[in-house]
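Let's sit down with a protein and look at its sequence and fold side by side. We need material for that, and I hope you will provide a protein of your own picking. Once you have written the record down, we can walk along the chain together.

***
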Amino acid sequence: MFTGHIQEIGTVVATGQDRFVVRAVNSAAAGARSVCVNGVGLAVASDSDGLLRATPSADTRRRSTLGRLRSGARVNVERALSAGDPIGGHALVPARLAWHCADPGDALRRLDGLMARREIITGEVTLRQVHRRLVDAHGLALSYRRFEDAWLEPYSWPMPGMASLVEALSARHRLVLLSNVDRDYWRAVRAAHPELRHFAALLASCDLGVAKPDPEAFLRASEAAGADPSRCLFVDDTAANVEAARALGFRTHRFGGVSGLRRALRACARAVDLADVLHDDA
């Protein structure tokens, strides 16, 4: 499964009618067998020299950007997700920015997790301050306006079935959203997602001044829900957050898709009477 989460900026080493070779040290070290290069899915062989070797068909070359790439070209490399891997999109923004830094590969490594850094998601620094730091530390060549556009461009998209499930649940239960998010991106999210109206409370880390997995963030959520943690189901796609909530007494589910969430809710139905809103769409 590919999600668009770029993990590395590679370099084309060789290209020809029967081969396509990219130097991508991290992906090769991970033993990647399937990658996306600039959005084109490829089966690859990884070697100890940090190279990914593929044999794309002539049709693939003709229909994609691969046929236009030459040795020395820099490319986005994404490894396929494995079962249990997180599905968040925070890696997209560092990849967008790294392309415009003096050393893209080094910047991509150092900017890993940028949008989840505590000082950013709790509002301790402004977006202008983040821009200035990247200019000074990595030679970012984007103006503030272009940087802001890259930062605010969506990195996640609506998941089929989720909005209808949230609406159905909200008819009988108090839903609270607890999100680690910076102030600027949070404004963009609220404007783009009218379905957020189904939540009784929207708790963003940038407003709270605390972020998951800090225990205070979870306790603020249970207060907003008006229920003891043992009466709340906490859903998140990050293992550390799920474990922290469980330690505080929450029922928990690590999110991996709508169907899995429905199953988790059905498991809770005996205690909280959710069964009538959890019918299958099919």
